[in-house]
Amino acid sequence: MDTLEGWTRSTHTADVAGRPTTHTVWRRGTGPGVVVVHEIPGITPAVTAFAQEVVDAGHTVVMPSLFGTDGAPASAGSIVRAIGQVCVSRELTKLRVGETSPVATWLRSLARELHEELGGPGVGALGMCFTGGFALAMMVDDSVTAPVLCQPSTPAALTPARSRDVNLSPGDLDVVRGRCAAGQQVLGIRYRSDPAVGRRFDTLTTELGDAFIRVELEGKGHSTVTEHRSQVAVDAVLAFFAEHLH
């Protein structure tokens, strides 16, 4: 069965580092908007299943396709192919610290367009693993009022500095701090034993204070709402969206 059956396919074009850039977008549901950004290797059945849970909770969900094969299950081969796409992409940062991924401007444009269409207080944004920090970068735009970071893992936590980095430029981090000081909240979810997240949650607590809501799960796992799905994590996300979007 096609896991994207019932989802509407379209495209969105916006500037990325001075270049018009187009990506596929999948959409379903009604209600306040949420942008769900997939992890490596792409929009897998597990990602779509989680997005459907957000739809069922009363939201319009859009899933941009940034890399990978839409609808294909996660496998060793699909992961290798997606990593290859990521490595050559100019839209995505991998190892640099103190830098926002260029694709963030495209994602902000997508969120802004969705908010202009649907209205309300704003839209939600959720990133996972490699894209986990993208929700924080999207929060630089006022349209995003419910950012969720699921196991943010970029840049790769290979050194202490990279382990602490939150994938934002100093200017973007200043904007995020300001929004949090004005009352915005940020939700972060991880498995406590997951080394891929590094010390980022500590950085976010230091930078954002009580505005950063930490959900740290017991047990072993990585993908909190997809491949290693935790009901605690899913419930926390849906409650956060309900509070900030309805």
TrEMBL record:
Top-rank taxon: Bacteria
Alphabetical list of InterPro entries matching this protein: AB_hydrolase_fold, Dienelactn_hydro
Record key words, sorted: Hydrolase
Every Dienelactone hydrolase domain range: 31-152
Single GO MF descriptor: hydrolase activity
Protein's name according to its UniProt entry: Dienelactone hydrolase family protein
